[in-house]
Design brief:
The complex is a heterodimer of chains A (about 120) and B (about 425).
Chain A: E1 5-7, E2 16-22, E3 25-29, H1 34-45, E4 48-49, E5 52-58, E6 64-69, E7 73-74, H2 78-86, E8 89-91, E9 99-101, E10 111-113
Parallel strand pairs in A: 5-8
Antiparallel strand pairs in A: 1-2, 2-3, 4-7, 5-6, 6-10, 9-10
Chain B: E1 2-9, H1 13-25, E2 31-34, E3 50-52, E4 61-62, H2 63-76, E5 80-82, E6 86-90, E7 95-100, E8 103-114, E9 118-120, E10 136-138, H3 139-149, E11 156-160, H4 164-175, E12 179-184, H5 194-201, E13 208-209, E14 212-218, E15 225-230, E16 243-246, E17 249-252, E18 256-258, H6 261-265, E19 290-292, H7 303-322, E20 332-337, E21 341-345, E22 348-350, E23 357-363, E24 367-376, E25 379-389, E26 395-399, H8 401-405, E27 413-419
Parallel strand pairs in B: 1-2, 1-8, 2-5, 8-19, 10-17, 11-12, 11-17, 12-13, 20-27
Antiparallel strand pairs in B: 3-4, 6-7, 7-8, 9-18, 14-15, 15-16, 20-22, 21-23, 23-26, 24-25, 24-27
Helix pairs in contact in B: 1-2, 1-7, 3-4, 4-5
Classes of the chains: A alpha+beta (about 120), B alpha/beta (about 425).
The complex binds flavin-adenine dinucleotide (FAD) and iron/sulfur cluster (SF4).
């Protein structure tokens, strides 16, 4: 079913944006700003999301590093991307922003670390 | 004994921002942050999802990224901090007692900023009947287990409570391959942000059961399921609407309580509505020289607001360390929440600092088309129309110099809400 109502997620206002057929074109209503309208148009045709999860770290002060895609990726690729990231292990130290997977699933998005993970301190155990 | 101008307790976003601001305002730079966890950053370290910083940085960051920006500044400024150090007491002479691996530590300071954050309400707090098997977590606990420790906490889950933390965990569990059977919410509305309902539930087809509650938890060793039922407008269970849902994991996300054990010990007066200290517009508590900000003061939904509030608290804590006489206790007018307003923060205005500030408040119910007014001595100073107000969203009103100049100081400032 084609959706004709979406809730904008770009800012906490959460405007409900509606799509109505106007002859051959569409009219959009309900948006609080232009950025939201542009987003809604894409949400109707090709919904995208930022993916965040964690990846294994070897020899780090913590065992998992949080990661994200640097740009949103198509919604239907989320689970496939997750399963790729599950199989990955990186070696500490990891810098914030360092690329973990380049161009994941040809989406043009890089998966980057969102936290610095130092090497395990041998006095920790 | 080591001596500081300002000591900040808690190294989350509130503590980091307060410390940075105190540091900037002081000449001798004697500022210390004390954090009980291994890392600075507070709860943000486990909030790996995006949604932070839109107001403050005008870009969308994850929790650890948001925290990193402040941690970096703290390190660059060479502000002193202690991690894995737990503050256990504060004496009337403002001596801080803390413990860490090395033992007991006593620290003397002129001013203290409380930034201890909050803790989660548990199953016990909402008195959910049933057995006590393994598989029951608070949502934040589960978040830490999954995002930091990397545990797999179950296979099929039910989440109780539809605030932002519950919603975010519904998505997180789904991505981890755990089937979320339902999010159960006792109120007729979710207190979570709409974008979280869209991105965390709708995206994955997870049902949100409004006006429902868990009436029983089943299972001997491990959770085997829950019984849920519909509730009426009085939140009472409607007979014969019970339904069993099979699951091995139950997450409770049923509210947060400011972490005020230390505040109580220090004799700080608390507000029964917020659960945090009563403060004035300098974020000074009833105990001279003790300031409070962030979730220890009242529970915030946006970290951006925490940062701004903490900066103000940090600045005034630094001022206190130099001019304590400006913070006496008998120099206030009250700011009072009336009809429709559950609470306001700050609850007082310090007559020595009649400077612009943001008045934050929450409403007590769901309102459509209402007017919030701020009045003083029977005169309306501000009137703000709002198309929607919900208890879940914290509101803020700028109190400008112009408004302050019209105040009559012998009268309360009254915040109230009227329907139109
Ligand atoms: C699951 C979840 C999701 C969230 N999602 C968002 C979101 O999408 N966007 C957004 O803007 N905000 C979000 N928030 C809210 C935001 O993260 C909080 O408002 C903010 O982190 C509060 O900061 P704080 O510094 O007051 O508390 P905290 O981050 O909790 O920091 C308090 C610190 O004090 C330390 N401490 C406590 N007691 C002591 C003691 N006695 N001695 C030493 N140290 C002590 C604790 O260890 C902790 O590190 C979310 C919160 C949660 C829990
Ligand atoms: S349309 Fe604009 S104002 Fe409305 S939610 Fe989206 S970004 Fe926010």
């Amino acid at each position: 079913m084609q959706k004709n109502k979406v809730t904008c997620i770009l800012c906490p206002r959460g405007c409900t944006i509606e799509k109505k057929a106007q002859g051959d074109t569409f009219e959009f209503t309900g948006f609080g700003c232009k950025r939201g309208m542009k987003w809604a148009k894409e949400e109707f045709t090709n919904p995208k999301r930022i993916l965040t999860t964690t990846v294994h770290v070897k020899n780090g002060e913590i065992d998992f590093v949080p990661v994200r895609t640097n740009i949103p990726i198509p919604k239907e690729k989320i689970f496939e991307a997750i399963s790729i990231l599950k199989g990955i292990e990186v070696l500490a130290p990891v810098e914030i922003g360092s690329v973990i997977v380049k161009n994941i699933l040809d989406t043009g998005a890089d998966v980057v670390a969102t936290r610095r993970v130092g090497k395990k301190d041998s006095s920790d155990d | 004994m080591e001596k500081y101008k300002v000591v900040v307790i808690g190294g989350g976003p509130a503590g980091l921002a307060a410390a940075l601001e105190s540091f900037k305002s002081l000449d001798d730079k004697k500022v210390l942050i004390i954090e009980r966890d291994k890392f600075l950053g507070g709860i943000l370290n486990q909030c790996i999802h995006p949604g932070f910083g839109l107001h403050y940085f005008k870009e969308e960051l994850t929790g650890p990224e948001y925290a990193h920006r402040f941690i970096e500044q703290v390190i660059e400024s060479q502000i002193e901090y202690l991690t894995e150090t737990h503050v256990i007491d504060i004496t009337p002479e403002k001596e801080i007692v803390a413990v860490n691996k090395k033992g007991l530590k006593r620290i003397k300071t002129d001013a203290i900023v409380f930034a201890m954050g909050c803790r989660e309400r548990t199953r016990g707090a909402i008195m959910t009947p049933g057995t006590r098997p393994a598989g029951i977590f608070t949502a934040g606990q589960a978040q830490r287990f999954i995002n930091i420790e990397g545990y797999r906490i179950g296979k099929k889950a039910v989440i109780v409570g539809s605030g932002d933390i519950g919603l975010i965990m519904a998505r997180r569990l789904t991505l981890e391959g755990i089937e979320v059977k339902a999010v159960v919410e006792i109120m007729p509305y979710s207190t979570g942000l709409r974008r979280n309902i869209v991105q965390c539930l709708d995206d994955f087809g997870i049902p949100l059961l409004l006006s429902h509650k868990v009436v029983k938890i089943h299972g001997k060793y491990r959770v085997e399921g829950v019984t849920i039922a519909k509730v009426d407008s009085q939140l009472q269970e409607i007979p014969s609407t019970e339904r069993f849902i099979e699951c091995d994991t139950v997450l409770f996300s049923v509210g947060l309580i400011p972490e005020n054990e230390l505040s109580k010990k220090a004799g700080v007066v608390l507000d029964s509505k917020t659960g945090g200290p009563v403060v004035d517009n300098t974020f000074s508590t009833s105990q001279k020289g003790i300031f409070a900000c962030g979730n220890v003061l009242h529970v915030h939904d946006l970290v951006d607001n925490v940062t701004k509030e903490a900066q103000t608290a940090g600045r005034y804590a630094a001022i206190y360390s130099q001019y304590s006489e400006l913070f006496e206790n008998n120099i206030h007018i009250n700011i009072v929440a009336k009809e429709g307003i559950r609470y306001v923060v700050p609850q007082k205005l310090n007559k020595n600092f009649v400077q612009p500030f943001v008045l934050r408040f929450r409403v007590d119910n769901f309102y459509k088309d209402a007017v919030v007014t701020i009045s003083n001595a029977g005169k309306i100073l501000i009137e703000i129309k709002k198309s929607i107000l919900t208890p879940g969203e914290m509101e803020g009103i700028e109190i400008s110099q112009k408004i302050l100049s019209q105040l009559e100081f012998s009268n309360d400032i009254v915040v109230s809400l009227q329907n139109i």
